[in-house]
Amino acid sequence: MTEPEKPSLEALGEQIEKLREQTSPKPREPEMKGLGFAMRVGVELMSGAFVGGAVGYFLDRWLNTAPVFLIICFFLGSAGGFLTTMRILDKTKGEE
Q: Are the C-beta atoms of residues 55 and 73 closer than 8 Å to each other?
């Protein structure tokens, strides 16, 4: 009687890794395609400008100033919305 060949540790390690890949759940981000992606980008841009404008408006009413804070906060909010949009687009660029 001959003894069966014992698998090497490297082959055994490869088999374990294959089984782990097959059985482990892979975390996924929800896919953004088409209209959903366009809506998200639009909302990000508009919400930054809206929130900035609202903060500036209420600061102007509270401090009795001209629309100085409205203009400043509007542009800061718009810049924040633009940066957020760029981050979203940069993430999706790597997925292609």
A: yes
- Four-CA torsion 69, 72, 73, 75, nearest 10 degrees: 160
Q: Which residue carries 């508009």 as its tokens?
A: 46
Tens-binned pLDDT, residue by residue, of the chain (96 aa): 566 666 678 888 888 888 888 887 766 656 667 888 889 889 999 999 999 999 999 999 999 998 999 999 999 999 999 999 999 888 877 665
Q: Considering only CA atoms, which of 27, 38, 25, 43 is closest in space to residue 92?
A: 38
Q: How many domains does the chain have?
A: 1
Residue 68 maps to a domain: yes
Residue 77 resides in a domain: yes
